[in-house]
Specification:
Elements (H helix, E strand, L loop, with lengths): L3 E4 L7 H10 L5 E4 L10 E8 L6 H11 L9 E8 L5 H14 L9 E4 L7 H7 L3 H18 L9 E6 L7 H13 L4 E6 L13 H9 L8 H12 L2 E7 L7 H14 L8 E8 L4 H15 L9 E5 L12 H16 L2
Parallel strand pairs: 1-2, 1-3, 3-4, 4-5, 6-7, 6-8, 8-9, 9-10
Helix pairs in contact: 1-5, 3-10, 6-11, 7-9
């Protein structure tokens, strides 16, 4: 059996954290480290981050600093995260921050790469009920499931990958679309590209139908609210090898129509696995905060919907006036690199 590198930063560790890791990883060869000083020996990584009542772990922040200042140090790695909290807050925030840092350092994350244990373990209630287990047992089983998926994960490749681009912007003024058009030109005929615009109030947001209703429509490949999401987006997502989200920063978040599109994917996710589909992103901020939007993509689409995250999945730029993005210093080199990374991740 392949080995994991188990990365356990800091000294803030409860008995539950230690015993759950020990039980969940029983029989799986692990090299345990508390920090990184260079590329890890094994390329399958499990970050296990315990947080105290304040949501703080100083060793975790040292790890975060290392990853952010050493691009490429996790090239070729596949990683997942266990976040164990003393309270019911901060675990998801810490995990998605770490996920983006690891990904920007070259790490691939499979779909659903997070095992999150809040203080009460109440987030395992539904899983425990379905499995007929206690909350503690479900926590251990979730760790083992993640570890086994990390060990066997291999990103799929396609001779002519299909790439779906989703946006809600104007071609006339959008810096985000200007960057995307340059990336698309660089991809040439190596990818079959479909582009769908979601503007002008055409997208109805998810209204939170009861689970049986959502499942019923999902089994038919539909959603109760219909519209462009069912007519165009669902078939395109099913057919795609990767989806790229083109995201101007709206108040440090995805735009309303893109948020609605992500929410509406729930009905499709009920019956369609996204595990073999990658996500990419182009995020442009007028002033700052692009990393916040990137983290939203990570948590909504990778952690929740199960898309996998290729290394360096997101291009983050800052530009305000129309046309400013294409005039940024070094932008042509970054566009070359981003397009090449898409092809490297998707094509053999």
């Amino acid at each position: 059996m392949s080995a994991l590198t188990l990365i356990c930063p800091g000294q803030t560790a409860s008995h539950r954290y230690a015993s759950s890791l020990r039980e969940g990883l029983r029989g799986i060869p692990c090299q345990v480290v508390t920090s990184l000083a260079g590329p890890p020996e094994n390329h399958r990584l499990l970050f296990a981050v315990p947080l105290d009542e304040s949501g703080v772990n100083h060793g975790y922040y040292d790890l975060l600093a290392f990853l952010r200042t050493h691009p490429g140090v996790l090239a070729g790695c596949v990683g997942g995260i266990v976040a164990d909290g003393a309270g019911d807050l901060y675990t998801k925030a810490a995990a998605r921050e770490l996920a983006l840092a690891a990904n920007s350092a070259g790490c691939t994350l499979p779909g659903r790469p997070l095992v999150e244990a809040v203080g009460s373990l109440s987030n395992f209630t539904v899983q425990a009920k379905n499995a007929g287990c206690t909350l503690e047992e479900t926590y251990c089983l979730s760790i083992r499931d993640l570890a086994e998926r990390l060990l066997r994960f291999a990103p799929p490749k396609s001779e002519n990958p299909k790439l779906l681009a989703l946006h809600a912007s104007s071609h006339r003024t959008s810096n985000t679309l200007a960057l995307w058009q340059s990336v698309r030109e660089r991809l040439g005929d190596a990818c079959a590209v479909t582009e769908i615009g979601l503007r002008n109030g055409t997208v109805t947001d998810c209204r939170g139908c009861p689970y049986p209703a959502c499942l019923h429509f999902g089994e038919r490949g539909e959603c109760f609210y219909g519209g462009v999401i069912v007519r165009e987006v669902y078939p395109a997502v099913r057919d795609a090898d990767a989806v790229i989200f083109l995201c101007p920063n709206y108040n440090d978040a995805l735009s309303a129509n893109l948020t609605a599109a992500v929410n509406r994917l729930t009905a499709l996710y009920r019956t369609t696995s996204f595990a073999d589909k990658a996500i990419f992103g182009i995020v442009v901020s007028g002033y700052s905060g692009g990393d916040l939007v990137a983290r939203q993509l990570v948590s909504a689409l990778c952690m929740n919907k199960g898309f996998y995250l290729p290394p360096n999945f997101c291009m983050l730029e800052t530009a305000n006036d129309a046309g400013a993005a294409m005039k940024l210093p070094g932008i042509e080199d970054r566009l070359d690199g981003f397009a090449a990374n898409i092809l490297k991740c998707l094509a053999p």
